[in-house]
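Bumping my old thread because nobody answered last time. Still need a sequence for this structure:
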């Protein structure tokens, strides 16, 4: 056999052996990854939301509102659905905001009040309460230096002269007592809301939200003494309000008596 044929045969055998090796050693092809189907889109419905931030005391107009898609199974109660009240924008027009709404927050009817022909102040007073104005110093001497603003919560303290001490020759003596605690300020002067986006306070009266018993106590006390407002912490405003009236028939109540600049604690008579 010629040498060239032998070489050709050897190359052919080597090529065949290599091809056989590659066939048997080639890894098995991987199975294609299973296709993951996207979940179906959540069901939505259109609800009425604030188109911009609405502050306490704002009067709602249609431009302040817009319809927005909202998850149908959302747990928020009291939202206004377009499917139920398509004319809701006209229904809530001219309502007074009794709380506040952030932009995009669903509008809830319990935070709105439509006063009709009533005045603004009567629209923001909670049912069962009264708006009572007391005289204050316009420089803030008895309102925490004018830092008390509408919608803050305060205590009311009365300071009056102890006539019995004066008659007995003990000199001038003054008594301070807390009349009511944790009550809401409705207005300072004629201002019950923000001006130009900034809270402000000016005036010689403070209007408080009181229940009937508190109103009687504060009005009577103002005739025989000076009333001052004590600002409470913001955390008190975030908690559920629990206004109280101090029981003036309680013989164990404490009062502060100031004689010659010295304060002492004593029990009421």
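Sorry it took so long. Here it is:
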């Amino acid at each position: 056999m010629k040498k060239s044929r032998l070489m050709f045969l050897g190359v052919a055998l080597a090529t065949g052996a290599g091809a056989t090796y590659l066939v048997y050693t080639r890894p098995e092809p991987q199975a294609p990854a299973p296709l993951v189907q996207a979940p179906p889109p959540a069901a939505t419905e259109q609800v009425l939301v604030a188109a911009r931030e609405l502050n306490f005391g704002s009067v709602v107009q249609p431009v302040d509102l817009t319809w927005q898609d909202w998850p149908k199974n959302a747990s928020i109660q009291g939202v206004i659905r377009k499917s139920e009240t398509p004319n809701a924008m006209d229904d809530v027009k001219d309502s007074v905001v009794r709380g506040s709404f952030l932009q995009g927050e669903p509008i809830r009817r319990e935070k709105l009040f439509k006063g009709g022909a009533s005045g603004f102040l009567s629209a923001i007073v909670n049912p069962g309460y009264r708006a009572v104005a007391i005289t204050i110093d316009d420089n803030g001497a008895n309102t925490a230096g004018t830092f008390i603003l509408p919608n803050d919560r305060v205590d009311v303290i009365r300071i009056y002269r102890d006539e019995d001490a004066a008659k007995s020759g003990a000199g001038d003596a003054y008594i301070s007592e807390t009349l009511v605690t944790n009550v809401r300020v409705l207005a300072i002067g004629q201002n019950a809301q923000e001006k130009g986006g900034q809270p402000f306070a000016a005036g010689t009266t403070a209007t408080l939200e009181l229940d009937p018993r508190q109103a009687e106590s504060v009005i009577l006390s103002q005739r025989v003494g000076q009333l001052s407002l004590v600002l409470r912490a913001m955390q008190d405003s975030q908690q559920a309000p629990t206004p109280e009236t101090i029981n003036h028939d309680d013989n164990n109540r404490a009062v502060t008596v100031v004689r010659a600049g010295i304060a002492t604690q004593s029990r009421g008579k």
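Residues 15 and 167 are 131 Å apart (CA to CA). Let me know if any region looks off to you.
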